[in-house]
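Please, structure for the following, as C-alpha cells.
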Amino acid sequence: KHYWDYGSKREYQSTKFNTSPTTISKYAFHDAPKNDGLVNTNTLFYESTRHGDTIAPSAITDLSGKRVDGTNKILLSWTAPIDNNGKCTEYQIKFQKNQKIVEYFDYDYARDESTAVPFWFAENESGEPIPQIAGASETFSPIREFPKNELWYAVICSRDSSNNLSPVSNLLRIDSNITSAENINSAIVSAGFDAYPNPFNPSIKIRVSLPSGLKELPKLTIHDISGRLIKSLTFNQKPGTHFIEWNGRNNSGTKIASGMFVIKLTANGKCWTKKILMSK
C-alpha cells in the first residue's frame, strides 16, 4: 500500500521479486533498495480488506510542553482533535533524539537520512491518556527523561475506532527549552487528505486536513492520468478538517468517462496526490 501510494514519487523500484509479480505480491514481497520496514504483508492486507469508516481524525496542531522544575521530566499539552464519528480512541506519541519526525510522504531517504525519520520509525512512548471529547484540553507526562544538554523532537497522532491514523501534529523541539519547531517541510507543518469510496461511481468524498501557518491558499484539483486538469474544487481553505464531494463532472459540468484520475492538494509549492478510479 505504501509503495503504491508513495513509491512512484521517489522513482525507486524493488530490485527483485521474491515470488511471481502478481497484483498483490509485487507490493508485498520484494527486496527493496532501502529500509522500508513498515511495508509488510499485514499492512497491505489490512488496508485492502478494510471497510466502513476510512476518515482519519484531524491533525493536532497545538502540541506544546514545559519542563517540570528541578527535574528532567516534561509535561505535554494539546487539544483533543475532531473525528467524524465522535471522539478519538487512542493517542500515539513519538520521540526521536537529534532527528526531526516527519510524515512518511514528506521523507526523502537520500536527502533526510541523517536529519529526519518518518513517523513510523521514531521511538514509541507508552501510557498515553485516553482521548477526551474534541476540544478538551489534554496533558501527559512522558515516562522518559530529557536532560537539558540533549536534543529531542516529539509529535503526536490520534486514532479512531476504525484504526484510522491522523496526520502528524506540529513538531516539538525539546532541549534546554521546549518550543514548536518547523517540520522538514517549512511551508506546511502537516497536511493531507483521503478519498472514499475508491473506486467510486458516481461521486467521491474527499477529506482535507489543513494545518495552521499556511503562507498561501491551498488548491484542490482533479486531473486525468496524463496530468490534464479536469476539475478545480472549491472548499473552506482555513486550518482544520474539511469534507468536499466531487460529482464526477469537469469544469464545464460534463460527466466524465470512467477511468483513473489523480487528486492533487497543493500549497506553498508542495503537492500531495492520490490516485482514484471511477468505475463503470
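The helical segments are 2-10, 25-28, 41-49, 109-112. The mean pLDDT is 78.
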